[in-house]
Amino acid sequence: MKIAVDAMGGDHAPKEIVLGVMKAIAQYKDIEILLFGDEIKINEYLTDKTRIKIIHTDEKIESDDEPVRAVKRKKKASMVLAAQAVKDGEADACISAGNTGALMSTGLFVIGRIKGIDRPALAPTLPTVTGKGFVMLDLGANAEAKPEHLLQFGLMGSVYAEKVRKIDRPRVALLNIGTEETKGNDLTKKSFELMKNQQAYEFIGNIEARDLLMDVADVVVTDGFTGNMVLKSIEGTGAAFLSMLKMSLLNGFKNKVAASFLKKDLMELKAKMDYSEYGGACLFGVQAPVVKAHGSSNANGIFTTIRQVREMVEKQVVETIKAEVDKGNLGGQEAND
C-alpha cells in the first residue's frame, strides 16, 4: 500500500510530518510513504528511510493562497503532486495538513469525483462523552446543498463508520432544529423524506445540535455552511471550557492541591475532546481516499491520520461507496449531466 503525503502542508511542516511518517512506517510494515516536498528540509528530520521515498519539489501551496487559483497555477506544489500520484496510480491515497480549500480543489480537479455523487463532503470524526465519537458531514466542502446531496452524505458517512470505525449498521441522523419530522426548513424537510425512504443505511431521524456529543448517532448529516459553524462552535466551546477549568483549579492553594490529584483525569478529558486523535477529515466523494490532517498536527496527529488512511484503503471504503451508488437507490443527477 502506497500513501502520498504532502510534507510541506501544515503549521509544523516538514518536521512533524516527517516524524509522524517515520512512526507510521515503524508501526505498519505493509505501507510505503511517498513524501512530496523540499528534499533538503525533509532530510533534516528523516533518520530512517525505510519504505519512504522523497519526491522533491520546492513549490507549495500557502495557507493564505486562494484555493482554486493556487491548484491551477502551482502545478508542482507538494499537495498537487501528491494528488497527481494518486491519479496516476502511483499511490492509493493522499494526505495533507495544508490549505483545506486547496486540498478539496485538488481532490476534485486532480483525482476526480465519483460518478453518481453530486457533491463531495468534508467529514471529520468528532468526540462524544463516551469516547466513541461520531462522523459528521459536510463540514465545509459545500456552503449550499440540496436534499439529494444530504441523502448521499448519509451513505458515504455510513460506509466509513462501518468499514473504518467498525460500527455494525451505523445510526445516521439529520441535524435539525427539532427531532420531529415536520421541523426544519425546506432543505431538512425534503432531506428527511429522502433519507426516510432509502434502503442503503439506517436512518434514525432528526437530531438537535445540543445532543451531538451525547452518542445518540454514529453519523450526522448537514449542509457545509451549518456543519462548519457547528464545528467551530464545538472547538471554541471546548477550548473555553478547558481554559475556565484551568483558571479555576489554579486559583488558590486548595484548588492547586486538588488539581494535582486530578491532573491525570484532566489530561484524559482533554485527549477525549481532541478530535485529531480520531485522525483527519475525509474528503468523501472523490475517486480515492483524500484526508485533511489538522493544520496544527504534531507527529502523533500525522501518525493517526496515516493509520486512518491505511484502514480506508484496506477496507475499500471508496470502492464500497461506488458499489452502493451503482445500485441506484440514492438518485442524484448532477454527476451524470
From TrEMBL:
Its EC number is 2.3.1.274. It is an enzyme of class 2 (transferase). Pfam families: FA_synthesis (PF02504). Gene3D superfamilies: Isopropylmalate Dehydrogenase. Its main location: cytoplasm. Pathway: Lipid metabolism; phospholipid metabolism. It catalyses: a fatty acyl-[ACP] + phosphate = an acyl phosphate + holo-[ACP]. Keywords: Acyltransferase, Cytoplasm, Lipid biosynthesis, Lipid metabolism, Phospholipid biosynthesis, Phospholipid metabolism, Transferase. One of its GO terms (molecular function) is acyltransferase activity. Coiled coil: none annotated. It is found in: Cytoplasm. InterPro entries: FA_synthesis, Phospholipid_synth_PlsX-like. Belongs to the PlsX family. Homodimer. Probably interacts with PlsY. Catalyzes the reversible formation of acyl-phosphate (acyl-PO(4)) from acyl-[acyl-carrier-protein] (acyl-ACP). This enzyme utilizes acyl-ACP as fatty acyl donor, but not acyl-CoA. This is Phosphate acyltransferase. It comes from Listeria immobilis. The gene is plsX.
